[in-house]
Structure formats: C-alpha cells, structure tokens
User: What shape does this take?
Amino acid sequence: MASDALALIDYGAGNLHSVENALCAAGAAGVSVTADPDTVRTADRIVLPGVGAFAACMGALSAIPGMVEALGEAVLSRGTPFLGVCVGMQLMADAGEEFGRTPGLGWIGGTVVKLEANDTIRVPHMGWNDVRPTMAHDLIVPGEAYFLHSFAFEAADPADLIATTDHGGPVTAAIGRDNMLGVQFHPEKSQAYGLRLLGRFLQWRP
Assistant: This one.
C-alpha cells in the first residue's frame, strides 16, 4: 500500500526533488529522501532517480559508504520493489559506455550505449514519445511519456525488455525482472501517464 516506507535514494541526482513531488502526488504517504544505507536496507520500496552521465552517477552512488551493498541486499536478496528512473534505470546494467566503459550494478544483463544520430534522428532523444509494451507487465501500459537521453539500455536477454519507444528504430523504454523495473522516460515529467505509473508502483506486490 501507499503507506509503505519508501526510500528515494539521494546521491546528488538532479531530478531528486521532482521525483519526490511526483511520488507524493501519486499517493505516497511519506517519502524518505535518504543517503542512509540502513534506511534503504529496511525500506518497503526503493526508487533510484538519476540524470547526467552514467560514470558520474555510478561514481556518486558508489561513493556513499555501504549504499551499493544495501541496495543489493534489499533488492536482490529481500525482493524489495525497485524502480529506476532514467540514469537510475541505466545503472542497473552491467556497464555504460559514456566517457569510457564503466561497470554498473549488474542487476540486469546489458550495456548502455550511445544513440546514433543522422540527418533525421536527433540526439539527445528529447520530448514526448510512445511507450510500447513488449510483454504484459503490472506497471507498464501503452501511452506517451517524456524522454530526455542520449544513451540507451541494450538488454542482453530479450526477456528483460518490458517496453520500447521509437527513435529511428526501437529504443528501450523499460526493462525489468521480478521485483525490479527501470524506465528510460521521466514519470515525474510525464503528467497523467507518469503519475499513474508511480501510483501502480506504490501498490505493486511482485
């Protein structure tokens, strides 16, 4: 239920407070904006936001003593429902290729690679675009969401691909497995579609 203890990870991500506001608007009774591994370890739900470069975000997350370990314990061992947003989703990958290859959390196999621009396709991919589910999922439905990114998650296993969008071809919009979901788009900027997604996450019992 929405009254569960929700931990929103504070590691300097630029969209932290807009995600907090959106979670509250979606029905969260209380959001703990936290950099405390113990709070994360015992949370009922976890959201990892993020904007910026993969390497910088992974470095900032890793710089909080015990945080990566606490996240792994909560999400992988305890099965705590987890939502990664934008770079927070990308960090779930094995590695990212922005400013050199940087290891990620390694929760879902794949690599975050640069989108290719051409005469008709602009990078960054910015603005409203369709979210097209590739399989049935409790949280992801068809609709339009707001995207802003220059790199995309290439999943190693197609079974982990939850939804795509189109930007000169299919681009990952959501990945997930079990209790984990990551979305490339910004729910906090996606108006009614984003709020409904966050509302479903607050009720999710994977």
In short: DSSP finds six helices and 13 strands in the chain.
